[in-house]
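Much of what follows relies on a compact textual record of a protein's fold. A record is reproduced here so that you can trace the correspondence yourselves:
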Amino acid sequence: MCIMKKILVTGGTVFVSRYIAEYYVAKGYDVYVLNRNSKKQSDGVTLIEADRHNLGELLRDYYFDVVIDTAYNSNDVEMLLNALGDYKDYILISSSAVYPENAVRPFKEDTLLAVNKYWGKYGTDKIEAENTLLKRNPNAYIVRPPYLYGPMNNVYREAFVFDCALADRKFYLPKEGEMRLQFFHIYDLCRFIDVILENKPGQHIFNVGNKDTVTIREWVELCYQCVGKQVEYLHVHEDIEQRNYFPFYHYEYCLDVSKQYELMQNVKPLNVGLKEAFEWYINNTDKVNKKSYIDYIDGNLA
């Protein structure tokens, strides 16, 4: 008889944690989500309604086969660990923001962690979350993705380009568009969590991502193709803060994901993943936190 595995996902209402929760519901797990119930819950999950910083004894009598945590800082981790009862595996979704921008690239898992001037406190908080977790549970796993994308992405990245394409807008591209980005589909993140749980590798920290990077020009072209449009570029060479009109910092980096590829060789091609992202977006435009890039462009660049 197959026993249904119990999984706890912190959050479970927005992008990464929501996708993870629904992924494991579809796999037949008994999925619990921990959040304040301020957003609509996914079908099939069991809600534990609470603030993770004020859990008391709420989790003490639960047993979880795996805890998947999207903690932002050390206090998030500390409070959850203090509240948990018995559990088997713990996986923290960290970030590539833990690597300093001036470190040797590609960043390896053993690269010295430090503040990154582009990510600031977000990155240093993730470093502290990792350190706290490994001190409390040396057997926990940590994954460090680059830019995540795919269905349920509430960050205005590919959705911004989709909007430009839908409106038949010319696209304002930073310089010649040669800056390179590294992505990882949210589905592949879940698949790699499966790999960790199935294989229990001796290594406990993994960079994850597509091994191939892509220029921002190529990325925009792929986004326009998802909409069935061809992009026409206008190049911005002026010394203007890039994030005013484009959804990424002027910051190019690459993660060494060779250890991930030793365990999981295949990842979703970027064009396929972006098509899935677009198909989700056209039915969920209200779920994306839109920024005023277009307003800035029309007021300052057009």
The chain has a mean pLDDT of 97. The longest strand covers residues 86-93. The CA atoms of residues 211 and 258 lie 8 Å apart. The two ends are 65 Å apart (CA to CA).
